[in-house]
Amino acid sequence: MTKILALDTSTDACSVALYLDGDIREDFRIIPRQHTQQLLPMVEAMLNKHGVAVSDLDALAFGRGPGSFAGIRIATGVTQGLAYAADLPVIPVSTLESLALAAYEKEGAVKVVAALDARMDEIYVASYVIEQGCPQTVLTEQVSAPSDLQLSEGAYLAVGSGWRYVDSMSEDTQAKINVSAETYYPSASCMLKIALPEWQSKTVAAADALPVYLRDEVAWKKKDQQ
Question: Which ranges form a coiled coil (predicted)?
């Protein structure tokens, strides 16, 4: 039976999920600035609770970004460490894709535009059409000023922290979206659901399990760019 462990620390949420015996178990917590201290204990507790050793796993999945610069590094580092130690393949999963799947599962939305606050008055954003439970990319993930966002025709459910900037977006963009009243975070359980279909074709070696920031200057302060 396939066993896959997924980790995510890309936002204020920290989550660990285990696919075991056809079911997904998850530990999901909103713990800003506590990811470094809590992620490994959460991993250990999850594995111990279900009698699984790291060496028993078939693969690891992780939220590779975009998202918090520091948060993505934490999940990447822990995933690489576990993968190296147990010689496991890794499945990188988009945080925006995870948001889209969560919106589909909770609200039934088949057209979703997911956005995370990228700070510096920008957003990380991508849009998807959900087909048979799998997000298919329409707008490739990118970093954008809210006013520059352009969407293809159609009504999208808008989810994620990036929609705090909705009033800065063009009238055309605002006309194509319905901002969800729900609060969504990327989650390890949704990442597992994305990773599971044909998971063996999606793996990379530990050394190639790299974060996706979308902009190299994500850690710069705005004053350094002026």
Answer: none
Distance between CA atoms of residues 122 and 116, nearest Å: 9
Nearest of 161, 191, 174 to residue 24 by alpha carbon = 191
Residues, the chain, total?
226
Sorted by sequence, the CB contacts under 8 Å of residue 221 that are 6+ apart come out as none
Give the DSSP letter of residue 216: G
Q: For 100-121, what is each residue's pLDDT tens digit?
A: 999 999 999 999 999 999 999 9
Tally of domains in the chain: 2
pLDDT above 80 for 216? no
Report the percent of the chain where pLDDT is more than 90.
93
Q: Are residues 103 and 133 in the same domain?
A: yes
Same domain? 43 vs 148: no
The CATH number for 219's domain is 3.30.420.40
The order of strands in the sheet holding 111-117 is 134-144, 123-131, 111-117, 156-159, 177-179
- For residues 223 and 155, give the distance between their C-alpha atoms in angstroms, rounded to a whole number: 37
Residues 111 and 192 in one domain: no
Range of the domain at 107: 95-179
Same domain, 193 and 147: no
Interval 184-207: pLDDT, tens:
999 999 999 999 999 999 999 999
